[in-house]
Amino acid sequence: MREWQAKEAPVKKFDYLKPETLDEALSLASQYGKKAMFIAGGTDVLVMIKQKTISPDVFISLQKILGLNQIQFDGTLKVGPLVTHRTIEKSDLIRKQFSALADAVDVLGSIQIRNIATLAVISARPRRPLIPRPLCWFWIPN
Ligand SMILES: Cc1cc2nc3c(=O)[nH]c(=O)nc-3n(C[C@H](O)[C@H](O)[C@H](O)COP(=O)(O)OP(=O)(O)OC[C@H]3O[C@@H](n4cnc5c(N)ncnc54)[C@H](O)[C@@H]3O)c2cc1C
């Protein structure tokens, strides 16, 4: 084993909870408070775990909750927290009526990332940030 591998500290153990309803998810969030974090696509969370920027005791996955992957428009655009960047990018509604949003997600990461990552919370990587990193609370330790 290489020296750098041997020195790497293990990631802290955490529980991974998969509520099936929004009420259940909110109840878990309320129960665990700051010890818990939501996880949607996980593209950011995985990086942050590895970098040890975050170390929650509990992850609350949103993936099993039905209906969170919908885009709706009733005068107001509503993008569910499991809608991926790729879905936004391919949405006719968003392309026609909210083209700035479509253009923004169009250049985010790679197609592989856009297939999984959601719009819910954006980390803003230096490459093509949608929001400048200093404005994102979860990049600021404590
Ligand atoms: C290789 C790579 C390239 C990338 N390129 C870019 C880029 O060019 N531009 C860019 O802006 N980003 C980029 N990202 C970052 C990432 O893909 C985006 O920030 C994406 O929007 C994160 O979505 P996710 O669903 O994976 O979030 P997750 O990793 O699941 O969650 C990210 C954060 O949001 C919180 N969260 C998620 N959903 C909710 C919710 N519903 N309510 C409350 N909190 C929630 C989580 O607790 C966590 O703190 C890149 C990431 C990778 C790995």
List keywords for this structure.
142 residues, alpha/beta, Uridine Diphospho-n-acetylenolpyruvylglucosamine Reductase, domain 2, Uridine Diphospho-n-acetylenolpyruvylglucosamine Reductase, domain 3, 2 domains, 3-stranded parallel beta sheet, two-stranded antiparallel ribbon, 7 helices, 5 strands, 35% helix, flat, disordered C terminus, binds flavin-adenine dinucleotide
General description of the model:
It is a single chain. The protein is flat and about 50 Å long. The strands form 2 sheets. It has a 3-stranded parallel beta sheet with strand order 1-3-2, with helices on one face. A two-stranded antiparallel sheet has the order 4-5. The chain folds into 2 domains: 1-66, 2-Layer Sandwich (Uridine Diphospho-n-acetylenolpyruvylglucosamine Reductase, domain 2); 68-142, 2-Layer Sandwich (Uridine Diphospho-n-acetylenolpyruvylglucosamine Reductase, domain 3), CATH 3.30.465.10. The protein has 7 helices and 5 strands; from the N terminus they run αβαβαβββαααα. The termini are far apart. The chain has helices at residues 3-7, 22-32, 43-51, 85-90, 92-97, 99-106, 111-114; strands at residues 15-17, 36-39, 58-61, 71-73, 77-79. The longest helix has 11 residues, at 22-32. The protein has 142 residues and is an alpha/beta fold. Bound molecules: flavin-adenine dinucleotide (FAD).
